[in-house]
Amino acid sequence: MSLPSFVKLVDVGPRDGLQNEKLPVPAAVKIELVQRLQQAGLKEIEVTSFVSPKWVPQMADNAQVMAGIERQPGVRYSVLTPNLQGFEAALKSKPDEIVVFGAASEAFSQRNINCSVQESMERFAPVVAAARAAGIYVRGAISCALGCPYEGEVAPSQVERVARLMKDIGVQHIGVADTIGVGTPLKAQRAIEAALKVYELKDLSGHFHDTYGQALANTLIALQMGVWQFDTSVAGLGGCPYAKGATGNVASEDVVYLLHGMGIATGIDLDRLIDAGQFISDFLQRPSLSRVGKALLARRSA
Ligand code: HMG
Ligand code: MG
Questions:
Q1: Residue 77 forms part of a structural domain
Q2: Is the pLDDT reported for residue 199 higher than 90?
Q3: Which of 47, 49, 172, 196 is the most exposed place for a label (fewest CB within 10 A)?
Q4: Range of the structural domain that residue 21 is part of
């Protein structure tokens, strides 16, 4: 077993975490959340998405949020851009990184971004080219890599296919995403192995939703494969509006506890991360979904 000695986490809470909230979350709260995450030591934060406000109203304040964050040196801020319209709007906000998001399943691609997988690549290609010409790093997400809410099983070959399509258009980094949290460790391993036929380990991350409580186990098997980059969400916030019933990403606090407990460095201060989780949970008026967050808060107040 060869475990990494350092793991980089991208907190996707402000974007993936909040995009599905029914009640509007004010831009000031999103900005404060980003601030608290960077104070906790996060070096990468997925801030918002430049998608249609008709499709995802919660992200309609994208430019306001990007304008309001207090950028810290050494911290990278990413945003989702599904097409040129989104990219051009995002460019004004000067993101360090953009994310194009495709899917391993045709049905999910249609529901989420209103086009086929092949068409999505045609939309992404000019976005990737423009981003790279502007010196902006390009990440690609492969949704439904471990299962689809509409098609069910997803074969590793479908993951490999999308990874190859993304590689062909110049996407620099790939995220293997379990959108609906159905995957179990061997499925995660096979999907990652499929993506590794196309991308190097250094250019791959795991993005596991925790709907079925499997995300930490999936994270662990990925770690054992040498994967050292993961998307996580503070307080376990999140879900995709086009994947009904899917809950949040694995909680950042839980992953940090797992990693530190295994002697793996993250550069993150768990106590301050728990404070960030508490801040957003208080605003949303519901308990954090992080088990570690709850446990350590209970210990604090004991
Ligand atoms: P479309 O309707 O096919 O686009 O939507 P269109 O080009 O035909 O344009 C239709 C209308 O949308 C026009 O407005 C455009 O101006 C507008 P109208 O003339 O009707 O007033 N429009 C836009 N407005 C703002 N920003 C844009 C934009 N593009 C078009 N970028 C589109 C295609 C992709 C835009 C739409 O399907 C969409 O916005 N989908 C949102 C999907 C989304 O945000 N899903 C959640 C994020 S992905 C995720 O959570 C998964 C991930 O976490 C990994 C995982 O867990 O799997 C990343
Ligand atoms: Mg997601």
A1: yes
A2: yes
A3: 172
A4: 8-301
**Rounded-to-integer distance, Cα 186 and Cα 220, Å:** 11
pLDDT digits (tens, 9 = 90+) for 227-283: 999 999 999 998 777 878 788 999 999 999 999 999 999 999 999 999 999 999 999
Task: Give the predicted TM-score (pTM) of the model.
Answer: 0.97
Structure tokens at 5: 């000695």
**Residue 3 belongs to some domain of the structure:** no
| Long-range contact set of residues 23-31: C-beta below 8 Å, sequence gap at least 24 | 24/57, 24/58, 25/58, 25/283, 25/284, 27/61, 27/64, 27/65, 27/68, 28/68, 29/280, 29/283, 30/61, 30/65, 31/65, 31/68, 31/69
The CATH number that applies at residue 232 is 3.20.20.70
CA of 55 to the centre of ligand 1 (A): 6
Indicate whether residue 114 lines ligand 1 (CB < 6 A).
yes
Tally of residues, the chain: 302
Is 139's C-beta closer than 6 angstroms to any atom of ligand 1?
A: no
